[in-house]
Amino acid sequence: MPAPAASEVLGDALAVMLGRTTDLPPSELTSIVDLAREVLGASTARVLIADYGLTSLQELGRDGPTGPRYAASGTMVGRAFSGPNIVVTGHAPAVVLVPLVEGSERLGVLEMTHPTWDDERAALLAPVVRVLVLLLISQRRYTDVLLRTRRSEPLSPAAELQWDLLPPLTCSTPRVSVSGILEPAYSIGGDSFDYALNQDTAELAIVDAMGHGMPAVLLSVTAINCLRNARREGRGLEAAYLTTSAAINAQAIRSAFVTAQTASLDLTSGSLTWLNAGHPLPLLVRDGAFIGELSCQPSLPMGWEGPVVEVATEHLQPGDRVLFYTDGAVETRSASGELFGVARLADLFLRASLEGVPPSETVRRLSSSIVAYNGAGLSDDATLLLLTYHGTPAEGGADPAQSPRREPPA
Q1: pLDDT tens digits, residue range 173-219?
Q2: Distance from CA of residue 313 to its chain's centroid?
Q3: 117-165 pLDDT, tens digit each
Q4: Banded model confidence at residue 1, pLDDT cuts 50, 70, 90
């Protein structure tokens, strides 16, 4: 009898995973990992989840994190997490480290030990890992286990609310990528961002509410949800600014305000329109050079109910990168009192772009540089939101697929 085709083996493997998962309680995330191990023929398997700050990873246990924590930089686990490729170390046995990605947001790493690693096992890997990620994400809504594992330190109630408000940190399509990050991840206050990738547009916003802690979060929650409502109702940037400003003004906080940049990118033409509500100007990198700030005359911060002064327009070219940020990213100071500054941020942004660093890794590196520069903990929130325009499919193209890469033994 002929051996079953690879497609039949794969189909049977996925059917087993899906069938057995339906009978598991929502909290049994480690059992889902064990099913993937069985299907892939691994001796051992575990999932390492990235923390909120994307600085470390820890093993997903039965009721939360377990085992040692691994740095996202300078380790094999970190190498697999930060890059798109599979990392294989050793031969018999072989340790296989696979990035776990939801769409294009990095969740962590699947680490497996195999007696041997060959092309037949590699052929099963990508689709099984995709199903594993989908199962973990779908079960996340019903249990705290995965979100507990994301914590490398206690999360403040204000930060808990802010993180639940956020969209996925990264999303990429053949025409555009959007990546964001917030610091301090565990005590974030009034900073937030939002985006939506629709049929022919990418719409995004970055906001910075006055104050700190829960009062600031409540202002940013109001701003983000008013902007979402206007976006989903099909209103433009000007109407969204006016209605959001009125809603913030109606709150019982005296002189409350939120600065913001709101933008809309036509994915076909590359036309970027944006409105500046008293916020730092975004930075543009094009063709391996820092072009400068994208200027837009500021309207008043939202909450002060002024008129719209300008809606600016810039035609983006394929490959252009636009970095939006909050003032905390450039106003943090070193131990000697020197400002981080726009010039330093622009230089690091350009370097990452010249190195071809993916959008999600770019904002992670920039954020890490800001935190390291301060050294003693940020006194203000620092948020980054990176927009990368790839062009139409004919000009740009999809993100590169994962491919195995063998490394020297660890």
Answers
A1: 899 999 999 888 888 778 999 999 998 999 999 999 988 888 889 89
A2: 26
A3: 877 777 778 888 888 888 888 887 888 999 999 999 898 898 888 888 8
A4: very low
Residues 105, 140 contacting (CB under 8 angstroms): no
Burial 106-123 (b: 16+ CB within 10 A, else e): bbbbbbbbbeebeeebee
State residue 35's pLDDT score.
Answer: 85
Mean pLDDT of 302-319: 94
- CATH code of the domain occupying 157-389: 3.60.40.10
Per-residue tokens: 389: 């325009």
pLDDT at residue 106 above 70?
A: yes
Instruction: Quickly count: other Cβ atoms within 10 Å of residue 336's Cβ.
Output: 5
Q: What is the CATH number of domain 6-150?
A: 3.30.450.40
Domain residue ranges of the chain, discontinuous segments joined by +: 6-150, 157-389
